[in-house]
Amino acid sequence: MDNQTKQTVAQIPLLTVKAGPRDGDQWIERLKEEYQALIGYVEINKKADNDWFTIESNPMGTRWQGKCWYIYNFKKYEFDLEFDMPVTYPETAPELAIPELEGKTEKMYRGGKICLTVHFKPLWARNVPHFGIAHALALGLAPWLAAEVPHLVDNGMIKHHEDK
Amino acid sequence: MEELEKLRQKLYSIQKEQSAQKLSERNCIEIIVKMLELKMIDIIHTLNGKEYITPKQLELEIKDEILRSGGRVNITDLQPLLNIDISHITDCVNKIIKKDKSIQIYHGEIMTTYYLDSVVEEIQEQLQEVGKLHINDLSLRFDLEVDLLTSAINPRLGRLIHAVFDASETLYTQAHIDRHKHKVMGLFSSVTQPIIIAHLVRQYQSGDYQLNERMAFGQLQELIAAKRINGIIQGKGSSAEYIPSIFSQSRSKWIESFFNQNSYIAYESLTKLQIHDPKAYLKQTFKNGVALSTCFIDQLVVDKVDDSITEIIDNIGWLDVSPLVPPPLSNKDMEMVIKECPNMKCTPEKAIVLNEYFVVSTTFIDRCFTLLQQSIQDKLEKQQKAMENLAVSKDSVKDINEISSPPTKATSNKKGGKSKQGAPGDLDDSDEDIKPTKKGGNKKKGGNKKKNDDSDDDDQPNKKGGKNQQQQQKKVDHLQEIIQLLSKWYESMEEELIQSLSQYLRPKVNQAWENMVKEAREKLENETMKSRKQQQQQLSTQLNTLYANYQLFKNGMQEMDDEKSLPNLTKHLLKTVCTNIANLLVEINANYHMVEFSSIETPAQRSAVLQSLPSQVSKSLDKLFASLSKSSIEEFQDTLDTVCTHSQIKLKQLDKKSERALLDNHEKELKEQLAHEQDFGNQFQIIVNLFYIKLKNHYVYAPPRSIGSLVSVICQDEETDQVLKDQLNTLHQEVVKAIVNKSNSTLEPETTTILENIKTLLLKQ
């Protein structure tokens, strides 16, 4: 994990409520904290001119979807992002998926779920309930995109929409 | 739930917000590099790389810096301020300078006009306080080069700075200059004598006056031009001299009065009065003067001299110029004066200058010369006369001292000279001089030289010896004589003039003398040659006669066949005729070899003569003389032959006819002698001889003692008349008796009659 990521993560507000989607009011509280964390993260990104995703959820906050993008060789590659809140949340981290890249890379499970590094799971486990969606994006999806997109572009697996 | 909705809205809205655009530093650098590559922008890096700057900004910043530093800044000082590479700065500065004329770079420093203005203003302020500033001090103070400062000051003079910039060195305020001018005015007004300006100014350079040399000089000129000070400046540079009018006026007044009074003025006195080029000054002042080497004289003097010259030319005389000209004139001056005279200029042939201040009419000189020539002529004639006298009475001069020296001529010359008037030295000398030339290849140089040496010691001690001697002796010098003659003729003439006139005439006279002497000598030589030839001829005829006689006598003697009387006869012959022949031969040889001699009668004289003859000749002659004392006629004959071949004399052999003629001659002679002879002994001898001749046709040259043998020969002859024989015998006996008997000097009358008879008998035939 690079320093910048660490710094960024350290700036994201930590969560306190330990509740899953099935915990009723407790979840609402948790959801509030999730939103606050996301807002903080987006603000940080915007400020650093490092905005790389948009996200929104259903009313109950169980299903989330949005977009994420990566700039490589002065070209912006944008992908759809979606994931469901697992029942065991926040014990387990959400499984982030980019369906359109399914089958294009080995670092991906069925259904377009990205294959995270070995460090992610223990890190997450150590920080339950303090880590939320924002952390998952920052520590999971961002490094993955940074590693995979150049590889995919170089191998010609994906193409910029202007080149299609 | 509402809260949640709010949060969701907030997230949404935040996501909608535009994110702040941000470039990383690295990107920025890359972008700029790219842009520079593409020449889209033109910027300059700062040295630390943190900033870029556009040229325009740089220009502005430099301008700001210049302004900030008050208009003068070193370019190297800009570099740390702007933090930009110095080359960009210089480029930019150059650009600025091109655009902005008020800025200039001087020795790496940027200077603006307003900075220089401020400097000059500052100078002006200070100048007003002190009145005088030196550029070097200013240069030190402002840390500006002198020439820059000068060029800054010069265009601002009178505008920003009110001063006089003297020689681009010192600045003065007008007040200061005025002050200075008044000092100069005061100083030079007080001067009454010529003075070197530089010295005076230097004297007042320090102290209260504080004079500036150049300025003082200029102001002095101004003051003189403005007639504030009366005087003139003479000379240039450091030797320039100020001569106050008061001085020059009095001086020129003095010069004028002196010149007018005395008609001359010496340059020296002008030099004393500080006129450096007196000649030029005088020429300028006195138009009608004449410049000489040490003096300047009035034309009047020249005219006066000229008049006198005209006079002496007309009067045929001479002139001493020195009393006519002012006394301080040197000889050279006088010569120049004379040269100035129109007479000398126009007709230089009419008079000449001698000893620089004597003018002598050429006619006068000619006259002198003619006189001298005459005297020479006289002298020569006298000498010649004396010489001729001597030649006539040649034998009379027998000076023992003269034996080894030329016999007649030198002596006569000497006599002539001495008998003339009192110039013995020179005359002697001239005689000496003639000798060597005359004698030419003479072998008697030894004696000659000796004489010369003597005369040198006595008469000509000033004559140089050695090599010059010979040469000098060849030249005849009549200087002394000329001087004497001239002083005798012209008693009023100055001694110097006589000297120089003599010097002038000397070559001419000497030449004339030489010519005359030469002529005379030639004449003389011709004469001597002639006489010598004559003499030679005479001698040789004499010799021939003698030889003929000798032969005749020899023949006669040999014919006689008388053993008894032969040695006697031979001896007699040798002693008389042969000795004469030998002496004659010596004489001939001496004459031929031009040996001077007076007599050869004694053996000593003869041997002296012989010594100077060629050895071969002298040897054979010696032998000849030796043979004389012997008694053989043959020996004499032989040696005589050798001598004659050596002396290149041809002896005539006697032939029958000439023998006969000779005999007749002798006979006639004898008869004549007989007719006049008084002595009976001689008469008898002649008679015997005549008889013998008649009888034998031979002339026996016999001494009186041998007459008897002759008589006996006659008597033995058959042809002779018996009476005559008897008569002769008796006569012989009587004569012998009479001679032996000395007391009786006369014959007996008988005998005398016989003698007379025979005499008349013989004379009749």
Distance from first to last alpha carbon of chain B: 234 Å
Uncertain regions spanning at least 5 consecutive residues of chain B: 394-475
Structural class of the helix and strand makeup of chain A?
A: alpha+beta
Q: What is the structural class of chain B? A: mainly alpha
For the largest beta sheet of chain A, what order do the strands appear in spatially?
A: 1-2-3
Put simply, the count of helices of chain B is 33
Q: What summary fits the major beta sheet of chain B?
A: 3 strands, antiparallel
Binned strand content of chain B: 5-15%
Number of beta-strand segments of chain A: 5
The general outline of chain A is globular
Low-confidence stretches of chain A: none
N-C termini distance of chain A: 34 Å
Mean pLDDT of chain B: 72
Helix content of chain A: 25-40%
DSSP helix fraction of chain B: 55-70%
Family (chain B): Belongs to the UFL1 family.
GO molecular function (chain B): UFM1 ligase activity
Pfam family, one (chain B): WHD_UFL1_5th
Keywords (chain B): Coiled coil, Transferase, Ubl conjugation pathway
